[in-house]
Amino acid sequence: MTPEKRTTPDAPATVAVWGGEHHPLPDRSTQIPVYHSVSFGYDDFDHWYAVATGQREGHIYSRNTNPTVAAFEEKVRLLEGGDAVTSAATGMAAISNTLYTLLRPGKRLVSTKDTYGGTSKIFTEFLPEYDIDVELCDTADTDAIEAAVAEGCDVLYLETPTNPTLKILDIERLAAAGHAAGATVVVDNTVATPINQDPLTLGADLVVHSATKFLGGHADALGGVVVGREDLVERVYHYREINGATLHPEAAYLLLRGMKTLHLRVERQQDNAQRIAEFLHEQPQVSVVNYPGLPSHPQHEVARKQMRGFGGMLSFGLDGGLETVKRFFPQLRLSHAAANLGAVETIVAPPATASHVECTPEERAALGIPEGLLRYSAGIEDVQDLIADLQQALDTL
Q1: Measured between alpha carbons, how far is residue 13 from residues 9, 194, 195, 207, 265 in Å?
Q2: ω into residue 370 within 30 of 0, thus cis?
Q3: Residues 269, 245 within the same domain
Q4: Buried (b) or exposed (e) across 177-187, using 16+ Cβ within 10 A?
Q5: pLDDT digit string (tens) for 215-266?
Q6: How does strand 206-210 pair with strand 347-349?
Q7: Which domain holds residue 338?
Q8: Using CA atoms, how far apart are residues 115 and 155, in angstroms rounded to an integer?
Q9: Same-domain pairing of 75 and 120
Q10: What positions carry a catalytic annotation?
């Protein structure tokens, strides 16, 4: 964790490459080493004690901090512009650690209905067991969210764009409502990435990521990260270090390596997603296309206001529902049918097996997730090849 704030004049593309990598590195290497050591030794008790108690920089035990992990954290902190940062073993560990840090029995959380399935399960299954009041509002009804917050709110949790329906929440407006009620505002920025969206600048107190997705970008490492206000991040870090969901240094190295191309990947992915969304929008077999870059998207103007790009993920519905989905996606040649997103390869998945696999069909329906929906995470392939692949699969229906 890096408690002191550092500023950089560099653009995000440059920070993605150089951020957090303080040279010279050991033995003049140009890449961050992977520190597999569990512990870090000291010859002097006073020095050791000063590091252990936070009076001096350093590391004592990798469940707490690790040099490779610290480099990854700092890169994300610089990209998000936060005061402090900590990481976790997975995106859900980052989210759950944040929520369990901020909430206690008798507290109240306000969020929206169609958040990521794992997050939604925390809201509907786990938090109520601890006597925490949870109100989930219609994601598209900003007035209803503000009204729920005004009734009392300790944590306002926003995910935008949402996964997999790609709804957009007005961060600035809702953060102001949250702060007026004394709430801590948390924003999941996984789908947008810091390349496209700055929740902290728009009023959020904390930003969370599943680093497994776009930040890593290669589908080979799990990780999560929390960035934001120093006092809040310190509390999340303490919860994580004691409860133990530590990011492994090997995963941190892979995430660091992936982030060097974050800007390039996101630019290509969202260019592909835009053109694919426009193509699908014209297809008679497709009932709906969810992508904030389309002028027809209900929150297109909000997305234009708070995002620099519209992201590399979209979703679309097929006429005929789940049975049509079952026939369609095996026909695709240029995509993995898998429960992931944000990778260099295109990935396609119905929510029933991916984002909302934890939910029953009835729960998905209540959350606004239709069974005939397909989430499509555009990769960096040639877009004409991807469109041709979609066309030939649609032609089989």
Answers
A1: 12, 10, 8, 19, 11
A2: no
A3: no
A4: bbbebebbbbb
A5: 999 999 999 999 999 999 999 999 999 999 999 999 999 999 999 999 999 9
A6: unpaired
A7: 262-395
A8: 15
A9: yes
A10: 63, 116, 188, 213
